[in-house]
Specification:
By secondary structure, this protein is mainly α. Helix content is 38%, strand content 9%. Helix 2 links the parallel strand 1 and strand 2. The longest helix is centred in the last third of the chain and has 16 residues. The protein starts with 11 loop residues before the first helix and ends with a helix.
């Protein structure tokens, strides 16, 4: 939990660091409060599948890393399927 003076996104790396490196993380579902450009990268560096609802105004990222590729895939799927169907299809609400 954070106070009003600290946003949710800056604490996301510390939350992930609480899980030991040798413990597998099957997937991470991230809501808008934690959605930053760095968030998919931090999770992808752990070898974890990332399920992040793309922001409506999000533009495709330069696909030079696993996190950017995952983000772009989600963005394309949302645009093709619509956000409501993407949420069900991706398991976003699990």
């Amino acid at each position: 939990m954070t106070g009003n003076e600290i946003g949710d996104a800056p604490v996301q790396p510390a939350l992930l660091e609480q899980i030991p490196e040798d413990e597998e993380i099957a997937s991470a579902r991230i809501d808008g409060a934690y959605h930053t450009k760095q968030c998919p990268e931090i999770i992808a560096n752990r070898g974890t599948q990332t399920v992040i609802l793309p922001l409506k105004a999000r533009k495709a990222m330069d696909p030079t890393s696993a996190g950017a590729i995952a983000q772009n895939d989600a963005l394309r799927a949302c645009r093709h399927l619509g956000r409501a169907i993407w949420r069900r299809w991706s398991g976003y609400h699990r």
